[in-house]
Amino acid sequence: MAGVFITFEGPDGAGKDSVLRRVVPELTAHLRVPVLETREPGGARISEHIRELILDPANTEMDPRTEAILYAASRRQHLVEVIRPALAAGKVVVCDRFVDSSIAYQGAGRGIGEDAVGALNNFATEGLTPALTVYLDVPASVGLARINAHRRDTQFDRLDQEKEDFHDRVRAAYLRLAADHRDRIVTVDATQTLDQVCADTLAVLRTHLAAYWQE
């Protein structure tokens, strides 16, 4: 494909939303090719409906395998409708979460198996892998403290409400993925100030996208 696929990953409370709000406009201003920002779950009409179902705090009875399948279904629709067409058009696609999230959250966090979830998503994506993944790393205790400090109880989604040991398992899986895929995943210390995290992230992106960068 002509475009470049970049994903952002991190445990809850890592600050992905805040970083993306600063970084994407910089990319848009400096790259010679169009930039498309999107997210998972969601990013397409059907995928957004699935997102609502997955994250609804009222759906406490959802089975972990059902959750994993729904994430994969949302991802498939998003891929077909949004990601692949944008890449074919030569765009830089910046996606908030992708397969690594499912491996970490459902595979490790829910305990249904990282390999099994990886296989399910390989089927859904037909093996599409990001060219670069920026992983914003933060300990579970720090991430959850940030969430508790900035959200009212009514704003918590299903995953935010999980206990710290769940989020510890998620982070451990992310660290394993980062160690196993050093050619793709670049880790940024998200315990730093937002300014520093954004500066480090932009440095990573500028290096990876040097062929497209213009002042």
Keywords:
215 residues, alpha/beta, Rossmann fold, five-stranded parallel beta sheet, 5 strands, 54% helix
Protein described:
The model has no long low-confidence stretch (mean pLDDT 94). Helix 1 (16-30) packs across helix 8 (194-208). The chain is 54% helix and 13% strand. Strands 2-3-1-4-5 form a 5-stranded parallel β-sheet, with helices on both faces. With 215 residues, it is α/β, with parallel strands linked by helices. The protein has one domain: P-loop containing nucleotide triphosphate hydrolases (Rossmann fold). The chain is built from 8 helices and 5 strands, in the order E-H-E-H-H-E-H-H-E-H-H-E-H.
Summarize the entry for a quick read:
The protein has eight helices and five strands. By secondary structure, the protein is α/β, with parallel strands linked by helices. The protein has a single domain, classed as 3-Layer(aba) Sandwich (Rossmann fold).
Distance between the termini: 25 Å
Supply the helix-strand structural class. Answer: alpha/beta
Low-confidence stretches: none
> In percent, how helical is the residue content?
40-55%
- Please write the CATH class name: Alpha Beta
SSE pattern? EHEHHEHHEHHEH
CATH superfamily annotation? P-loop containing nucleotide triphosphate hydrolases
Helix count, DSSP H or I runs of 4 or more residues: 8
Mean pLDDT over the residues: 94
Assembly state of the chains shown: single chain
CATH topology: Rossmann fold
Strand order of the largest sheet: 2-3-1-4-5
Number of strands: 5
Shape: globular
Question: Compute the gyration radius: what is it?
Answer: 17 Å
Proportion of residues in β-strands: 5-15%
Total domains: 1
Main sheet specs:
5 strands, parallel
Second rung of CATH, namely the architecture: 3-Layer(aba) Sandwich
Domain Thymidylate kinase-like: 8-198
EC number: 2.7.4.9
GO cellular component, one term: cytosol
Function: Phosphorylation of dTMP to form dTDP in both de novo and salvage pathways of dTTP synthesis.
